[in-house]
Amino acid sequence: MHHHFFPPGYVAHMAEVVGNKPSPLMTGWTQAQVLDHMDKSGVAAGIASISPWGPHFRDAAQARSLARLCNDYAAQMIRDHPGRFGLFAAMPLPDVDGALAEIAYALDTLKADGIGLMTSYGGKWPGDPAFAPVLAELNRRRAVVFVHPNTPQCCGSLVPGSSPAMLEWPYDTGRAVLSLLLGGALTRYPDISFIFSHAGGPVPALAGRLVNMTRTRKDLAEIAPRGVLYELARLHYDTANAYFAPTMAALLKLVPASQVLFGSDYPYFTLEQNVAGLAEIPLTGVERHAIDRGNAVRLMPRLAG
Fold first, then answer.
1. Interior CA angle at 140 toward 138 and 144, to 5°?
2. Can you give the residue range of the structural domain that contains 148?
3. Residue 34's closest CA among 90, 88, 85, 73?
4. Rounded distance between C-alpha atoms, residue 285 and residue 250, angstroms
5. Average pLDDT, stretch 65-86?
6. How far apart (Å, rounded) are the C-alpha atoms in residues 133 and 129?
7. Cα(174)–Cα(288) distance, integer angstroms
8. Among 21-30, 86-95, 131-140, which is the least confidently predicted range?
9. Total structural domains in the chain?
């Protein structure tokens, strides 16, 4: 579920997109290399998604162009290697009109498996009213939506020597979930199947705090009529770089195994280390099959073939 790809045309714009030069992991990425790693680690299929996707585009036209470039590249990759790849389509947000057009193209023309969103775009998170038309359309289509962390405008590397990926990216996942919860989007758009990266970042550990801190809200019956824990527990979470015993223990206390999907964050972390790490987590055979494959097939029946 968490399997990145880097079209050469996208990598060529990396400095403009995220403000720095592409890493060797991006410039050295090839389809042949990916398939070799997949075969060696026993991964049958990977759902391709773009990361990073920053807010530093020159204009909306550039964002639209790069999203289309990435989605067309992935669609060709799927045709060239039947059964091995899927696509969470890139979106040119914060351009809402462009995103609505790309949703239609990705789902209707390319037959993408779902839509890829970032946890934030500039100073706005997914539950912001500005993105309501996008969420409404995704809900109408009963879309699968993969949410990947981004470097938020508010907070980059606050601790000297750290990178945003260490803490700010997982924290931004928490902000994204909170924005959807407090904005009422989780209740308003119940037919979106959200998948959040890295076991939800801080969400499992802070779920009780969210419950306690929202008890006195006057709009609680509107934003979470069945309760905050109900809304958090019906979301989906991937295991990418989260296959550690304390992390998985917290996640599996918040949600059943039916809401957890295997992810790797390839190539930032290898498929092999994610497979080996998850194998160390005590799970029943039924739970392991659900996380490894069953839940993905349920969300995206095309994968069953």
1. 40
2. 3-304
3. 85
4. 20
5. 96
6. 8
7. 26
8. 21-30
9. 1
